Amino acid sequence: MLCENCGKNAATYHFTQNINGHETAHHLCAQCAAKAGSSDLSDLFGSFFFGAPSLRRAAVCESCGMTYAELSRSGKVGCAACYTAFAGELRPTLQRLYGNARHTGKVPADASQDLRRRRRLSEAKRELSEAIAAQEFERAAALRDEIRALDAENQ
């Protein structure tokens, strides 16, 4: 489907207007939606948009063409790229269902201690960078010591 504003690009932003029970669908490409979002919407589509906070993207997977509405109805993604295309919509649901929106996988019981140590080491290094950037030197020193201890355990 082409953008109804420019007629050149694929429409990736879809929204419906309902005035007195009369629904009208609109389809825009990313460039036209960005222009509409940053300027007065009434200039682009007429006075019915006046006061609208922003356009809401109706995500469409560019790989398989599945829409978020289809995913919501079926509960199944169409392809691996759907996770990226619908990331904003899926993240809160995954967080609520699984306690984390990021897949961490399962670990064999005998490897879990080593994996925990490596994950903590990685996390401590990230926290150290943040502490240095924030000039929290006491915290940075404690993290440095923890990193040294974790490095010693790995060897």
Question: What is this structure's SSE topology?
Answer:
Layout: E1 13-19, E2 22-28, H1 30-38, H2 41-45, H3 68-74, H4 82-85, H5 87-98, H6 112-133, H7 137-154
Antiparallel strand pairs: 1-2
Helix pairs in contact: 6-7
Task: Describe the protein's architecture and organization.
- The chain has seven helices and two strands.
- By secondary structure, the chain is mainly α.
- The chain has a domain of 46 residues.
- The chain has a two-stranded antiparallel ribbon with strand order 1-2.
- Helix 6 packs antiparallel against helix 7.
- The longest helix is centred in the C-terminal third of the chain and has 22 residues.
- The protein is elongated.
- The N and C termini lie far apart (58 Å).
- About 13% of the residues have low confidence.
Task: Give the structure's gist in a few sentences.
The chain is mainly alpha-helical and 155 residues long. The chain has a domain of 46 residues. The chain contains 7 helices and 2 strands; from the N terminus they run ββααααααα.
The largest sheet has its strands arranged as 1-2
Quickly count the helices: 7
What's the average pLDDT? 76
Q: Uncertain runs with pLDDT below 50, 5 residues or more? A: 38-57
Shape: elongated
